[in-house]
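Internal ticket - ligand job 558, adenosine-5'-diphosphate:
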Amino acid sequence: MMNVTIEQVESGVPVTIIKLVGQLDASSYLDVIETGKKLHREGTRDLLIDMSEMTFMASSGLVALHNIALLMRGEQPQDPEAGWAAMHAINRDVQNSSSFEAHCKLLNPTPAVRKTLDVTGFANLFEIYDGRDEAIASFG
Amino acid sequence: MMNVTIEQVESGVPVTIIKLVGQLDASSYLDVIETGKKLHREGTRDLLIDMSEMTFMASSGLVALHNIALLMRGEQPQDPEAGWAAMHAINRDVQNSSSFEAHCKLLNPTPAVRKTLDVTGFANLFEIYDGRDEAIASFG
Amino acid sequence: MSAITIYFPPVCLDDLAEIRRLIESAVVCLWEPGEVVTELVIAINEAVTNVLVHGYQGQPGHMVVKVSRDNAALRVCLQDQAWPFNPTAVPTPDITLPLAQRQPGGMGVHLMRQFTHRLQYRALPEGGNELVLVRQIEG
Amino acid sequence: MSAITIYFPPVCLDDLAEIRRLIESAVVCLWEPGEVVTELVIAINEAVTNVLVHGYQGQPGHMVVKVSRDNAALRVCLQDQAWPFNPTAVPTPDITLPLAQRQPGGMGVHLMRQFTHRLQYRALPEGGNELVLVRQIEG
Ligand SMILES: Nc1ncnc2c1ncn2[C@@H]1O[C@H](COP(=O)(O)OP(=O)(O)O)[C@@H](O)[C@H]1O
Ligand SMILES: Nc1ncnc2c1ncn2[C@@H]1O[C@H](COP(=O)(O)OP(=O)(O)O)[C@@H](O)[C@H]1O
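stdout (structure tokens):
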């Protein structure tokens, strides 16, 4: 069972914070992807995923992260301006040797989730922050 | 697993508060009785049992209550004055039509423990308090 | 889910808290946590305790627990390999007696009865006992 | 306690959280909560998920889980009645690829390997699969 709360903040760019509360597994990850899609449709381009109260994450949770990260850097056909920004973002990502996702970042995973991110290489793809303010400031 | 913390307060008479933390069942009730005996040996004559963090109580817990309550109203051969007080207490108990234990009272049981006390008649034998101050003041 | 069966290895009183927690986890697979589960677990704990204390007399012994649900009730079936004993034949204690006139103990079967709607006992043909605790959840 | 066996009724993905919790409760009867248990439960969850998703393909199916402990290791044996599939033959994914070049998924067996010390597979003679996850706890 996964509960999701959503918050909008400003930090140069608008940043959406999505807090996942509960257990992210194969029975709940599609809901999380749906939430990501909905946020994207509604204009979210920079997303911070608060994992502090996610008590469990399975490999299907990684699929959700993967999916949402691609969404956040992808094309937005419904809005040419955003589309351009997205293309720009993709360029930035390609140029960026660190290869961290610029538009989807993670906040405060529990030790077990952190280890799951480590052993699957996801910790090399996503910036992981301990502090919320620092995480927000890193966008834009 | 049962953890026990002990505290001494004054309220006309000295009152010992024993807080039972955890699960009181057939594997732990003898330890609680031992604690009661030890307190009695060390002079405790009025006892408040704090049940607020007792997450489980089996019928063996009632045996512990029974045993400790008898101890608290019993004779204390090692001290004539206390012995007299104890005799007096027994007289009070016999005269008291409510038949509540005067020297052993209960604080803040959870709803399930409360119901266990109810359906076994123990709620008619022990005064049960919600407030700690009120419970302490009721002694002496 | 409708039914879960748990086979325990030889267990004794030291294992009681873990047995209780595992059975509670199984019950919670079938019905949401709350008063029904809490009270049913108290009843189950009394049944398990009696098997361990009186049935196996402190020696480690096997136990099988099957929890199941139909629309109207949760059923917990407890099987042991101890000497036959029918707890449903235990007389109801007098709960109005003052403390000094009570024997300590003797409340276990009473709690089972209070916190369930039905107790069903049978001696197993292959030896041992089966006690089913039924707790209604609807209607 | 040394070994606990749980028989599940036909289960599907909706039951996953409860299956996980019940198995965790059983593991915790054998070993104290902490990193070992947390990681082992992640591995078990991946194995169970694969049985439900790929093995039974969303149809309800039976499962038997036996958790046991010897001095040196926790063993979790998972039996199903699905088509034979040997997860130990799944190749190791490349975890150094950038996100855009990765296929989503394919991390389940990898997590099982990372969070256990050994995986043992056999096709059951009567049909179905047995996967044993071994996690060392000492030495
Ligand atoms: N499984 C059992 N095997 C043998 N005797 C039992 C069993 N269960 C209960 N009894 C007997 O029935 C009595 C009443 O049981 P119970 O109401 O649970 O109270 P208690 O166990 O506290 O005495 C016990 O004292 C015991 O003599
Ligand atoms: N029990 C199973 N039955 C059939 N196929 C399976 C089973 N478990 C795994 N597989 C196959 O192995 C692949 C890799 O599994 P896994 O590493 O868990 O990743 P994922 O399940 O996310 O694809 C699966 O995509 C599936 O094709």
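Auto-summary: The mean pLDDT of chain D is 96. Residues 2-136 of chain D form a domain with the Heat Shock Protein 90 fold (CATH 3.30.565.10).
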